[in-house]
From TrEMBL:
Top-level lineage group: Bacteria
Protein name in the entry: Uncharacterized protein
């Protein structure tokens, strides 16, 4: 008789499969949703365990009780009412820093903070993932996931899927791009010029920017140089989400910013990495409302002409 052996719950396979499950839940949410951040923290915590277990499940065990190590070796501890306990995530993150050369101190600090938000979400009345800009944590999150996935013998593609992995590489590259930080000097220069204008000139330019920055032309944001209304342009990422409403279909598409323009002070910023450097890199949602005929490409006049020649009353 063949007996199918299931993987140990502390094995790399079990942990990584669970990380994939959490990542799938994360990707069901828009970047601006609090649940997107929440599930990302859960994904990260399990991925840390998967990467360490890939070396040995014993490294995941809480070393305060040697029976936990015995359990990690797939042995049954001879202790009554034994409940296996893995090490605290803070300890595991410090082990990861020692075990993986590419897992930097900066990554350790980010991971501790990000996972602690998950603890606050579950064990307090605070809302740590509400109103948090995605650009403030998502690039580093994906970079940490890349390092840990590769340390597990996996890739970003096996964790998130090919499409999201490609998006993640854009975020990571933006974080690595040190030259992008020069954009702050450009912003400062525009601020100086703006402050030299008279109040009357400012009022006219602010009113003009308000008029020209139509939300149908882009995503409205506040200019970092003059605080006027300005526009972000971007490209679509991921699959659009559709919702049927009373008068039609609402399509919501996540967008990755690629350019910024302020008509008030003239500031222009091109490139996602530069937008991230000045905190304009948050993904946003483009919403379109369609009538059913437009969404499905139905030509009403053609349908009516065809109906005029149909006869559904012919005898059998």
């Amino acid at each position: 008789m063949n007996i199918t052996r299931t993987a140990h719950e502390w094995s790399k396979h079990s942990f990584f499969s669970k990380a994939q499950r959490y990542a799938e839940k994360m990707l069901e949410k828009n970047h601006s949703d609090w649940e997107f951040g929440f599930w990302s923290a859960l994904t990260l915590e399990i991925l840390v365990r998967a990467s360490i277990s890939n070396i040995s499940p014993t490294l995941v065990a809480d070393g305060k009780d040697w029976n936990n190590i015995l359990y990690a070796l797939d042995k049954t501890p001879n202790q009554k009412k034994f409940i296996a306990k893995s090490a605290d995530i803070s300890d595991l993150l410090r082990r990861a820093e020692s075990l993986f050369p590419d897992f930097t101190t900066e990554m350790l600090s980010f991971s501790l903070i990000h996972i602690n938000k998950r603890n606050s979400e579950l064990h307090s009345g605070s809302l740590p993932f509400d109103d948090v800009s995605s650009s403030s944590w998502m690039p580093m999150f994906y970079w940490v996931c890349k390092v840990l996935s590769e340390s597990s013998g996996e890739t970003l593609s096996t964790l998130f899927g090919t499409e999201t992995a490609a998006e993640a590489e854009i975020h990571i590259e933006a974080l690595r791009d040190a030259s992008a930080k020069s954009v702050k000097g450009t912003i400062h220069a525009h601020t100086v010029i703006w402050n030299e204008k008279t109040e009357e000139e400012k009022e006219q330019l602010i009113a003009q920017a308000e008029l020209l920055s139509n939300k149908h032309r882009g995503h409205r944001v506040q200019c970092p140089a003059c605080n006027s209304v300005a526009l972000l342009q971007g490209s679509s990422i991921g699959v659009p989400r559709n919702e049927i409403v009373d008068d039609g279909i609402v399509e919501k598409q996540s967008m990755l910013p690629s350019s910024f323009e302020c008509t008030a002070c003239g500031l222009k910023i091109l490139g996602y990495s530069k937008l991230v450097a000045c905190e304009l890199g948050n993904t946003y949602t483009a919403t379109n409302h369609y009538l059913p005929m437009d969404y499905f490409g139905i030509d009403i006049e053609e349908e009516m002409r065809a109906a005029m020649f149909e006869d559904n009353n012919e005898p059998f």
